[in-house]
């Protein structure tokens, strides 16, 4: 989560990074939206409560339209959940996907059996109790599937079967169960308990008892999910279960018959419940896709920059050391000839050795010449007026997934929103990205509870905008602090030593500087300082 109030990220039970929306930890904005939906549902329920028993009239098209949409939404949601399981197999996702297939199938079957929807007495079953039994099956199988998910979700991937085989077995089991239960609700209704009185279409006492049982089941599953909540999927499944409760509470409170105000409202809430997770999945997948696209562009740009840097560095090294090495080789051969002469020409050999020493000193100047080469590179930056705070926010969005996976707390304090600097946005973004990645890597070896990244901006007395990146990592050893920006000098086992050198060169190109403000066992603070654009 990226905001001014740091918070601990919690990952799923397995330590693999979540690559799908359903397994990603929810953030404060997710929670705020979910609470807002619940508040709206409660407000609507309070307004409707005095009128739940009123009969506004029978609308035969209401059920086929609403429940067909509900069925389609549930089945599409199940398809997206199966797709997410295929990307990152997690057995609990199969339980949720199966629950949505149960819900979508029984919703559509109830529509077919409901009197007045597609036929005066329905297309299947009896006109009285078959629709009620499909309703009971609908709101029994769905919460039970969610309960199975809640109990399984911390176990990670437990199936040893392939992804396709797991999905196929789940589909076969779900549709087999639907076929068996549907047969009982259609053909064996006379042997099942009766929910409506024949002819009058009034609920029996048994119906009220079932409504109480279903509401208690929904509350139980909701409580289990609340206790074990962690992910975006957990959060919105709780909202979905909450939105379904009015279906039972209306009947318990008023004993309402079909087509009452309470009955219409409860079905409207059920429609909202069916579409909630679908809307969240589609929205979050779109956001995730945009972030992945941006990250891919950044990765390609970073790779191109690295290749350019390596090419420039190797070309500079080859150019700088070819001449002194050639001179050293020639002088060494000549010195050997002088010493092999009879008598040995010691004075000439001594002079040649002195030339070798001078040539060897030139090799030590290679690093400085490489850096000078970068300053004169042919690349023409696209200089523009930009806000360094906007650049920082963009990079934080790109690194959000990496920050979550590494359990890094982020705090920002931006104070210069209306202040601009002159720089190439792409190059400045690359510099900030490099600093944040270095900060994350510096905190890998410390406990997750101590990982904190603080990003601040301010304007100093010299009218320079300063962006500071502070971590709580292991710090830079004192002997290395003065050389941290030298090319080819690195404190990383697999580092090239070019990242900070290139970043420093980029900032200097815009009359600014990049420096290490402080470093110690409690962490390091790097500062970008750029002049305010006039």
Describe the protein's architecture and organization.
With 534 residues, the chain is an alpha+beta fold. It has three domains: 57-296, Rhopdopsin 7-helix transmembrane proteins, CATH 1.20.1070; 309-375; 384-531, 2-Layer Sandwich (Heat Shock Protein 90), CATH 3.30.565. It is 60% helix and 8% strand. It is built from 16 helices and seven strands. The protein has helices at residues 28-48, 62-87, 91-113, 130-152, 163-187, 205-227, 232-244, 246-254, 261-340, 346-363, 366-375, 388-398, 400-405, 425-442, 478-481, 499-509; strands at 384-386, 409-413, 421-423, 452-459, 464-470, 513-520, 523-531. The strands form two sheets. It has a five-stranded mixed β-sheet. A hairpin with a 4-residue loop joins strand 4 and strand 5 (464-470). Helix 1 runs parallel beside helix 7 and helix 14 (425-442) runs antiparallel to helix 16 (499-509). The radius of gyration is 34 Å and the shape is elongated. Mean pLDDT is 80; it is low at 1-16.
What secondary-structure arrangement, pairings included, does this model have?
Elements: H1 28-48, H2 62-87, H3 91-113, H4 130-152, H5 163-187, H6 205-227, H7 232-244, H8 246-254, H9 261-340, H10 346-363, H11 366-375, E1 384-386, H12 388-398, H13 400-405, E2 409-413, E3 421-423, H14 425-442, E4 452-459, E5 464-470, H15 478-481, H16 499-509, E6 513-520, E7 523-531
Parallel strand pairs: 2-4
Antiparallel strand pairs: 1-3, 4-5, 5-7, 6-7
Helix pairs in contact: 1-7, 2-3, 2-9, 3-4, 3-5, 4-5, 4-6, 6-7, 6-8, 7-9, 8-9, 9-10, 9-11, 12-14, 14-16
